[in-house]
């Protein structure tokens, strides 16, 4: 690894991307053996938040009969108020550009406050039903709170919670169980909701880019949009309803083309890789649907010989596409 870094640095110097003075400084820095613990500390902070909020949930579950509902809700509310007090006190206020707290601990305090707020509202609705039978409001309210916190405090983790809450509000969830049960097949409206919501997220990224509103959030929105549109489309490619599978194949093709372009613009390899995977799955299902009525009994030997070559070629093409993508964004 060290040899590779030295060669890369030398290449940058030879191409005049860095000066000789900068080359010397880089070599001196690497020879000092100093390394950063920033990523490790942030990971432990994140785990601390997850363990704390999980512990709150377990505490409520195991002691709900002895502590009492009012006491639990009061304790949650006190902790939430304290967390938000320190967050608002130390924040720089809302800004359209990217902002950060002076201390990274406060970023995770925002995350903890937001998760606890979701727990508080969910528990309140479950026990006392302040929203009546409108259970969607119990999802929508913490979603709105999460969006506010995400934009006010500039927190990507909270934004992820907000978008997840929004997808849950329209009834869309992506879990292995849902994919195996193929809920899109049994609930056709869910497919349309997923595609429409994914399209709206894409439109929001376009609008926020024009007004320069938290443009660093765009990758999160695009990631959710890619997964929602692609999963809904692929699930409906196996739908036997007349015309449905073909319509969703067009949607998947358009989505793949858009994310191919946007992944190069934002230089996001995650979007590029998942786009290729979804497109590849969609193409194979489409080919199968087109040729499903053809009798291969007479040419089955040729078919068996072609299949291995097809998959090997697909792997080679996938690797080549990734290498070309990395080369393009590096330039």
Notable characteristics:
331 residues; DUF2157 domain-containing protein; transmembrane; single chain; membrane; DUF2157; mainly alpha; 15 helices
Q: What is the fold's blueprint, element by element?
A:
Elements: H1 2-14, H2 20-31, H3 38-62, H4 64-67, H5 69-90, H6 104-128, H7 135-153, H8 156-169, H9 176-181, H10 183-186, H11 188-211, H12 218-237, H13 244-266, H14 269-290, H15 300-330
Helix pairs in contact: 1-2, 3-6, 5-6, 6-7, 7-8, 11-12, 12-13, 12-14, 13-14, 14-15
Task: Describe the structure concisely for a colleague.
By secondary structure, this protein is an all-alpha fold. The chain contains 15 helices and no strands.
Commentary on this structure:
Residues 12-158 form the DUF2157 domain. InterPro entries: DUF2157. It holds the Pfam family DUF2157. Keywords: Membrane, Transmembrane, Transmembrane helix. This is DUF2157 domain-containing protein. This protein is mostly helical. The protein has two domains: 42-169, no CATH class; 174-302 and 315-331. Helices cover 80% and strands 0% of the residues. The chain is built from 15 helices and no strands. It has helices at 2-14, 20-31, 38-62, 64-67, 69-90, 104-128, 135-153, 156-169, 176-181, 183-186, 188-211, 218-237, 244-266, 269-290, 300-330. Helix 3 (38-62) packs parallel to helix 6, helix 11 packs antiparallel against helix 12 (218-237) and helix 12 packs antiparallel against helix 13 (244-266). The longest helix is centred in the last third of the chain and has 31 residues, at 300-330. The relative contact order is 0.05. The mean pLDDT is 80.
């Amino acid at each position: 690894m060290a040899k590779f870094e030295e060669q890369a640095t030398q290449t940058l110097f030879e191409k005049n991307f860095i000066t000789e003075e900068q080359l010397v400084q880089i070599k001196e820095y690497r020879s000092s053996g100093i390394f950063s613990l920033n990523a490790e500390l942030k990971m432990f902070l994140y785990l601390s938040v997850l363990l704390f909020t999980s512990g709150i949930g377990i505490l409520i579950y195991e002691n709900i009969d002895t502590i009492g509902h009012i006491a639990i809700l009061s304790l949650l509310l006190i902790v939430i108020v304290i967390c938000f007090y320190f967050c608002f006190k130390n924040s720089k206020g809302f800004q359209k550009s990217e902002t950060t707290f002076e201390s990274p601990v406060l970023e995770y305090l925002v995350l903890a406050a937001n998760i606890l707020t979701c727990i508080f509202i969910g528990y309140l609705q479950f026990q006392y039903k302040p929203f009546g039978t409108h259970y969607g409001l119990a999802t929508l309210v913490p979603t709105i709170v999460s969006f506010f916190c995400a934009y006010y405090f500039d927190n990507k983790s909270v934004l992820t919670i907000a978008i997840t809450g929004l997808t849950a509000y329209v009834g869309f969830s992506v879990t292995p169980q849902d994919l195996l049960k193929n809920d899109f097949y049994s609930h056709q409206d869910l497919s349309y909701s997923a595609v429409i919501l994914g399209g709206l997220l894409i439109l929001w990224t376009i609008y926020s880019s024009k007004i320069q509103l938290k443009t660093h959030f765009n990758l999160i929105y695009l990631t959710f949009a890619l997964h929602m549109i692609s999963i809904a489309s692929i699930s409906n490619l196996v739908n036997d309803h007349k015309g449905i599978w073909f319509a969703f194949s067009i949607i998947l093709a358009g989505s793949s083309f858009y994310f191919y372009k946007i992944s190069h613009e934002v230089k996001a390899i995650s979007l590029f890789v998942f786009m290729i995977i979804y497109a590849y799955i969609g193409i194979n299902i489409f080919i199968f649907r087109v040729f499903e009525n053809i009798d291969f009994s007479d040419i089955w030997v040729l078919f068996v010989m072609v299949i291995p070559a097809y998959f090997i070629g697909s792997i080679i093409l996938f690797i080549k596409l990734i290498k070309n993508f990395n080369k393009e964004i590096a330039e």
